[in-house]
Design goal:
By secondary structure, the chain is an alpha+beta fold. It has 39 helices and 22 strands. Strand 16 (about 760-770) and strand 17 (about 775-785) form a beta hairpin. Residues about 365-375, about 420-465, about 470-500, about 1035-1040 and about 1050-1105 have low confidence and may be disordered. Bound molecules: zinc ion (ZN). Pfam families: Pepdidase_M14_N, Peptidase_M14, TPR_CCP1_N.
Length: about 1100
C-alpha cells in the first residue's frame, strides 16, 4: 500500500523493515526480491540515490538490518552499498562515509567471512569498494581493527597469493589500513611485510599494477620503525630491483613502480640499521648514478628528489671542522650565575668533545601509539587567566626607583634657567651616575674616550692590507693614521696598487646627512669589543647609499637545491676532487698564509663581523663556519665578512654550513647583501642584494645535542649562494642583512644632535654601561615649550610619553634602520615632526644590546642569554640594559605616567612585510577555551588603533600579519611584561621582514634601508594620527576607525599561521625537502600530509624571532 507522497524506494524500505521485524516467519525470497528492486532503482535513478543519501533517510540501516536477518542476502546488499558509494565520485563517497557507510561495509566483510567458503565475488566487490571509501574516512584504520576486518583481509591475501584478481583490491585496502601506525605494527607481526616481499620483484611486464600496489602498501607499512627493522635485510634486494627497473624501463612507463621502490628505501633508512644496510649495499653509488642518468628527463624528477632525500639521510655524518663549538671569544663575567647558560657551557669536564655526540642517533624505542588526528591548535597560547591580567603589586618600592628621576628632568623642568643651557649649549651633557653592571665611573659617551675605557686595552695590531685599521694607544687615545683616506706609508692599497696612493673616499655628505667617515672612525675608537677589533670595514666607513633600482624577490630556479645537494654528495663519491684547505681560522693563533691567487682571502675581524673559519673545498667553492654568540655555543644566523683575492668571472660557491633554523627566507627569494669597495670608490657606495642559486637545506654536519637543547641526531643546515665578481682587486663584503654597527649608531646620534633646532628638546643620557664596557644611550625628544608661561610649561610636562626601543637582537639589523628612520623624522624640521614633538615626550633606547651588536652576535648579549627573555626578572649585573630600561618604565608607572605607547623594534627572519605583535586579553581568551565570564573580559580595543593606522598609511605594513594573542613562550619579552606589569595597553613588538613584501606597494620586492627608514618615519606619523584619535574629544569616537568585527575575523583566520610557520613558507616550484627526515614530494594522502615536518621541527618553527 503506497501512500500518495511516498516514493517507491521508501515504500520498498518500509516493506523490508516490516519483513525484518517478522524475521523468521518470512520466506527470504520475498526479501531478496524487494532488495533487488531497491538495487534496480538505485542503479537506474539518480533521484533514488539522492533520496537514500539524504538527511533523515534510514535506508542504509535497513539494508544492514536485512542482512542481519538473512546472511544469504549479502550479495545483493553489497551491490546496494557499492551502487550507493561508487558512482558520482568523491563527494558521494564523503556522504556515504558520513552516513556510517564504512561501518556497514566492514560489517559486511565480517558477515561474508563467516560464509564457508566466503564468496570470492562478494569479497572482491567489498574490497573494491572499501579501497575507494577507506581513504575518505579518517577513522577507517581504527574502525577496521576494532571490527576485526584487518585479519579477514590478511587471511584472504595469504590464501590467494596467486589469485591476482582478488589480490589487487585486498592490497589496496591493506594499504589504507597500514596508514594507521597501530595497524601497521599489527600487520607486520602478522607477516605482511614478508608477504609483500613475495609479491614484488625485478622488471617484468606482467602484473605491474599489482606490483605497484604492493610497493605502496609495503611503503606504508615501513613507516613503522618496527616494520622497518624487519625489512633491513631486504635493502640489497630493493636496491637491486630499483636498478633493474631503472635499466629496463627505458620508456619510463613505470615511474610509479620505481618511485614505490624508492619509497620503501626511504622509510627503511629512517632507522640507523637501515642506513647502515644502505651504505653497505653501495646504495650511495647506485642512487647517485641512477639519478645522474635520470637528470635529463624532467618527468623523472620525483625519482631524483626521493633519491637525493635518501642519499642525504644516509650520507655519513660529519663533524664541523672545529675543536669546540663554544664561541672563539670568551668574555669573563664578573659573576657567573650557577646553572645559567654560561656556567653550563664552561663547566663541562675537560676533554669532552662538544662538537659531536657518539650516541648520535635519535632512535630510542619509539612509541608506536596511535596518532589520532591532531588539532592544529597552538598549545603555546597563554591559558592562565591570571597571567593575562595586570599584575597588581608593584614589586619595587618607590624609594628604590627614585634614582631614575634624573632621566625625566623634562617632567619637572621649569625652564627658567634651562633655556639658556639648552639653547646655547648644544653639547651640554651632565654627568649622571646610575647603578651599573661594573660600577665603573660613567662617562659621557660623546666626550673624548676616557683612559682605561676598555677593560682590555688593545695592543697595536699588525697592519692589514684590506681593511681600515685604527690603533688604540696604550693611553687609550685612538689614532687612525692608518685609516683611509690616507692609507699611510706602511700600507699598500690592494685596490689602488701604488704605494702611498690616496684612496678616494666617496663624497656622500649630501646623500647621507648622518654619515661622516672620519667621525665613524672616531666612534670606533671608543667602542669596546671582546676580540678587540682594530679594523674598520669599508662599508661602515664609506656608508651606504640605498640603490635607486628595484630589487625583486628572487624567483627560485628549478632544481637548485637538488644540484647543490648532488655536488655535496659528490664529495663522498669523488673524494679525490676535494681540497679541504683551511684558508681562514680564528681558532688558531696565526691564520694560514694564503698562497698567491689560488684561494680567496677572508676576514671578519671588525665590528659585527663573525666568520670563524673558511675551508676551500674545491677550486671555487668554500665552506664557511660562523662563530657562535659570545659565551654560547649556538645562535648562528647573522653573518658579516670580507672577501678579497677573487678572480673576475669565476663561478664561486659559498656555503655557510652551521646554520641552525629549519628553514629560511633564503628559500623564498631573499638574497644576501654584498658591498664592493671598487663600486664604492667609483661612486656607488652601497649594499646590493646579490647571489644566485641560493638555497637553504639540511646538511650532513651533525649537531651536538649539547648545542641542540639535548636533542640528538640533529643536523646543521647549509645556506649556499653563488657569486661571480666583476672587478679585479676588489674587496667585497657579504652580510645577512644591512649592517648597522654600534659605532654607526653613535655617529648617527652625534649628527642628529647637530640637526637640532631651537624648537627641539633633545637630551642624551647614558642609561648604563654594558658588560662589555659600552654605554647604552637613552634619548629624550620632545618640543621646547613655546614660552616659559605656566600654561606652556604645564602642557610641556604633561605630554603623554611614547617609549621606543630596538636592537635587543643584534642579528636584526633592520630594526636599527627602522629606528634610524624614526629618529631622523623626529629630529626633522617638517611641520609634522614639530607637531609630533609637541604632542609627546619620546623616550628612546635605540640599542638595547650594544655588546651583541659590536661582537657580531646574532641573538644574545655577553651573558650568553637572549635579553628579550629577561624582562620578567632582569639582573642588574647580567642584564643591565634591560634592568634599567624596565626600571625607567617602573618609575613612570609609579608616578602615574606610564607611556601611552611602548614599542620594541625587531626583525623577523621567516615572514614577509612589517607587522606588529600586541597583547589582548580577549583575543587570547578567544583563541583558547579558558572559561571566563564576559564581564571579566572588559577590554578597550584601543590596542588595535595604531597597527590599523599603520596598515592604512605604511606600504610595507600588513594588518593581516599582526597578532594580539599572548603566548606562554613570550611571557618574559618586553611587550608582554610592559603590558602586564607596567599596564601599557598599547605595548607592541614591531617586526620588520628581512626579506621583502608580498602585499602593498612593495609587493614582490626585497626590503631595503630606504623602505625600512620610511617605515620608521611612518610610525611617527601614525603616532600623530593616534594622538588625534585619542584626544579627549575624540576618545569616544575612535571606534569608527576600527572595523573590529571584520579585522578580528581576518586575524583570527590568520592566527594559526602566525604560529605554524610552514603556512607562511609553502609552495614554490621546487619541493623543498629541507628536512631530510621528512618532506617528500607533495602528498595528497590526508594521512601523511602533516608529516612534512617532524614534531620537533614544527615546534622549532614556532620559536619565532621576537
Ligand atoms: Zn627579535
Amino acid at each position: 500500500v503506497r501512500r500518495p507522497n511516498m516514493s517507491m524506494v521508501l515504500m520498498l524500505f518500509g516493506q523490508l523493515e516490516k519483513l525484518n521485524r517478522e524475521s523468521m516467519l518470512v520466506d527470504p525470497e520475498i526479501a531478496r526480491q524487494i532488495t533487488a528492486k531497491v538495487l534496480h532503482l538505485i542503479q537506474t535513478q539518480e533521484k533514488t540515490r539522492k533520496e537514500i543519501m539524504s538527511k533523515g533517510s534510514s535506508g542504509m540501516e535497513v539494508i544492514l538490518a536485512t542482512l542481519e536477518v538473512s546472511s544469504r542476502l549479502i550479495g545483493v546488499c553489497v551491490c546496494v552499498c557499492v551502487s550507493l558509494s561508487v558512482p558520482g565520485g568523491g563527494r558521494r563517497i564523503g556522504v556515504f562515509v558520513s552516513k556510517g557507510g564504512t561501518g556497514i561495509l566492514l560489517q559486511l566483510v565480517i558477515s561474508a567471512s563467516k560464509e564457508s567458503p566466503p564468496s570470492e565475488e562478494v569479497m572482491l566487490q567489498l574490497h573494491s569498494v572499501l579501497a575507494k571509501v577507506g581513504p575518505k574516512d579518517r577513522k577507517f584504520g581504527v574502525k577496521a581493527r576494532l571490527n576485526g576486518a584487518l585479519n579477514v583481509t590478511v587471511n584472504l591475501l595469504k590464501q590467494n597469493l596467486q589469485n591476482h584478481k582478488l589480490l589487487l583490491p585486498c592490497l589496496l585496502v591493506l594499504q589504507v589500513y597500514s596508514s594507521n601506525t597501530v595497524n601497521a605494527v599489527s600487520l607486520g607481526k602478522n607477516g605482511v611485510v614478508e608477504l609483500m616481499f613475495k609479491i614484488i620483484g625485478p622488471y617484468s611486464k606482467k602484473n605491474t599494477s599489482l606490483l605497484k600496489v604492493s610497493l605502496d602498501t609495503l611503503g606504508a607499512l615501513l613507516k613503522s620503525k618496527t616494520n622497518a627493522r624487519r625489512a633491513v635485510v631486504h635493502v640489497p634486494v630493493l636496491l637491486y630491483i630499483y636498478h633493474d627497473w631503472h635499466r629496463n624501463d627505458t620508456c619510463h612507463r613505470h615511474i610509479l613502480i620505481r618511485k614505490g621502490i624508492l619509497g620503501c628505501l626511504k622509510n627503511i633508512t629512517n632507522i640507523k640499521l637501515g642506513r647502515k644496510a644502505f651504505i653497505d649495499a653501495d646504495g650511495m653509488r647506485i642512487l647517485y648514478n641512477t639519478s645522474t642518468e635520470c637528470l635529463p628527463v624532467r618527468t623523472l624528477d620525483p625519482l631524483i628528489n626521493t633519491s637525493s632525500l635518501i642519499m642525504r639521510k644516509c650520507f655519513p655524518k660529519n663533524r664541523l671542522p672545529l675543536p669546540t663549538i663554544k664561541s672563539v671569544f670568551h668574555h669573563q663575567l664578573l659573576r657567573v650565575p650557577a646553572g645559567g647558560p654560561v656556567a653550563q657551557l664552561y663547566n663541562q669536564p675537560l676533554g669532552v668533545d662538544d662538537v659531536v655526540d657518539e650516541s648520535d642517533d635519535n632512535e630510542d624505542a619509539e612509541a608506536e601509539n596511535e596518532v589520532e588526528e591532531k588539532d592544529h591548535h597552538n598549545d603555546d597560547i597563554e591559558t592562565d587567566i591570571n597571567k593575562l591580567r595586570p599584575k597588581e603589586t608593584h614589586s619595587r618600592p618607590f624609594e628604590e626607583l627614585k634614582i631614575y628621576e634624573r632621566f625625566f628632568m623634562e617632567l619637572s623642568e621649569d625652564f627658567q634657567v634651562m633655556q639658556y643651557i639648552f639653547l646655547s649649549a648644544p653639547k651640554s651633557h651632565r654627568q649622571i651616575i646610575v647603578p651599573t653592571a661594573q660600577a665603573l665611573p660613567l662617562k659621557n659617551h660623546t666626550a673624548a674616550p676616557l683612559q682605561g675605557e676598555c677593560p682590555h686595552p688593545a695592543t697595536v695590531p699588525p697592519l692589514d692590507l684590506d681593511t681600515i685599521n685604527i690603533t688604540k694607544d696604550q693611553d687609550g687615545c685612538g689614532d687612525h693614521t692608518h685609516s683611509r683616506p690616507h692609507p699611510g706609508h706602511n700600507r699598500q692599497s690592494p685596490i689602488l696598487g701604488g704605494e702611498g696612493a690616496v684612496l678616494q673616499v666617496p663624497d656622500t655628505a649630501l646623500l647621507l646627512p648622518l654619515h661622516d667617515p672620519d667621525l665613524y672612525v672616531e666612534m670606533v675608537k671608543s667602542t669596546c669589543s671582546v676580540p678587540q677589533f682594530s679594523e674598520v670595514a669599508y662599508p661602515d666607513y664609506f656608508g651606504h647609499v640605498a640603490p635607486t633600482f628595484r630589487e625583486h624577490i628572487l624567483e627560485r630556479v628549478y632544481g637548485v637545491q637538488r644540484t647543490k645537494i648532488f655536488q655535496d654528495i659528490e664529495r663522498l663519491i669523488h673524494p679525490n676532487d676535494i681540497l679541504d684547505k683551511v684558508v681562514y681560522d680564528l681558532d688558531i693563533q696565526s691564520c694560514p698564509v694564503i698562497d698567491g691567487g689560488e684561494s680567496l682571502k677572508f676576514n671578519s675581524q671588525f665590528e659585527s663581523g663573525n666568520l670563524r673559519k673558511a675551508v676551500q673545498v674545491r677550486k671555487f667553492e668554500y665552506d664557511l663556519v660562523l662563530n657562535s654568540d659570545i659565551n654560547s655555543n649556538h645562535y648562528h644566523q647573522w653573518f658579516y665578512f670580507e672577501v678579497s683575492g677573487m678572480r673576475v668571472g669565476a663561478p664561486y660557491r659559498f656555503n655557510i654550513i652551521n646554520c641552525e633554523k629549519s628553514n629560511s627566507q633564503f628559500n623564498y627569494g631573499m638574497q644576501v647583501l654584498m658591498y664592493s669597495v671598487q663600486e664604492a670608490i667609483s661612486g656607488r657606495p652601497r649594499w646590493v642584494r646579490t647571489g644566485t642559486d641560493i638555497c637553504y637545506y639540511k646538511n650532513h654536519f651533525s649537531r651536538s645535542s649539547i648545542a641542540a637543547g639535548g636533542q640528538k641526531g640533529k643536523s646543521y643546515y647549509t645556506m649556499t649562494f653563488s657569486m661571480t665578481f666583476n672587478h679585479k682587486d676588489d674587496v667585497c663584503y657579504f652580510a645577512y642583512h644591512y649592517p648597522y654597527t654600534y659605532s654607526t649608531l653613535k655617529m648617527h646620534l652625534q649628527k642628529l644632535e647637530a640637526l637640532r633646532t631651537p624648537q627641539t628638546y633633545l637630551r642624551e643620557d647614558v642609561l648604563c654601561e654594558t658588560l662589555g664596557g659600552n654605554s647604552c644611550p637613552l634619548l629624550t625628544i620632545t618640543a621646547m615649550p613655546e614660552s616659559t608661561s605656566n600654561d606652556q610649561i604645564c602642557q610641556f610636562r604633561n605630554r603623554p610619553l611614547v617609549f621606543l626601543s630596538s636592537r635587543v637582537h643584534p642579528g636584526e639589523t633592520n630594526a636599527s634602520w627602522v629606528m634610524k628612520g624614526t629618529l631622523e623624522f623626529l629630529m626633522g624640521s617638517s611641520p609634522l615632526a614639530q607637531s609630533l614633538r609637541e604632542a609627546y615626550i619620546f623616550k628612546i633606547v635605540p640599542m638595547l644590546n650594544p655588546d651583541g651588536v659590536v661582537n657580531g652576535n646574532h641573538r644574545c648579549s655577553l651573558s650568553g642569554e637572549d635579553l628579550n627573555r629577561q624582562w620578567q626578572n632582569p639582573s642588574p649585573e647580567l642584564h643591565p640594559t634591560i634592568y634599567h630600561t624596565k626600571s625607567l618604565l617602573q618609575y613612570l608607572a609609579a608616578i602615574q605616567r606610564a607611556p601611552l605607547v611602548f614599542c620594541d623594534y625587531h626583525g623577523h627572519s621567516r615572514k614577509k612585510n612589517v607587522f606588529m605583535y600586541g597583547c589582548s586579553l580577549k583575543e587570547t581568551v578567544w583563541e583558547t577555551n579558558i572559561s571566563a565570564t564576559s564581564c571579566e573580559l572588559h577590554e578597550d580595543l584601543g590596542y588595535r588603533t595604531l597597527p590599523k593606522i599603520l596598515s592604512q598609511m605604511a606600504p610595507a605594513f600588513s594588518m593581516a600579519s599582526c597578532s594580539f594573542v599572548v603566548e606562554r613562550s613570550k611571557e618574559a619579552t618586553a611587550r608582554v611584561v610592559v603590558w602586564r606589569e607596567i599596564g601599557v595597553q598599547r605595548s607592541y613588538t614591531m617586526e620588520s621582514t628581512l626579506c621583502g613584501c608580498d602585499q602593498g606597494k612593495y609587493k614582490g620586492l626585497q626590503i631595503g634601508t630606504r623602505e625600512l627608514e620610511e617605515m620608521g618615519a611612518q610610525f611617527c606619523v601614525a603616532l600623530l594620527r593616534l594622538k588625534r584619535q585619542t584626544s579627549p574629544l575624540k576618545l569616544r569616537n575612535h571606534a569608527h576607525l576600527l572595523d573590529v568585527e571584520s579585522d578580528l575575523m581576518e586575524t583570527r583566520c590568520k592566527v594559526s599561521s602566525t604560529y605554524l610557520l610552514e603556512d607562511e613558507e609553502q609552495s614554490f616550484m621546487e619541493e623543498v625537502d629541507y628536512s631530510a627526515e621528512s618532506g617528500d614530494e607533495p602528498d595528497n594522502d590526508p594521512n601523511t600530509a602533516d608529516n612534512h615536518l617532524s614534531d620537533s621541527e614544527s615546534n622549532k618553527h614556532r620559536d619565532s624571532l621576537t
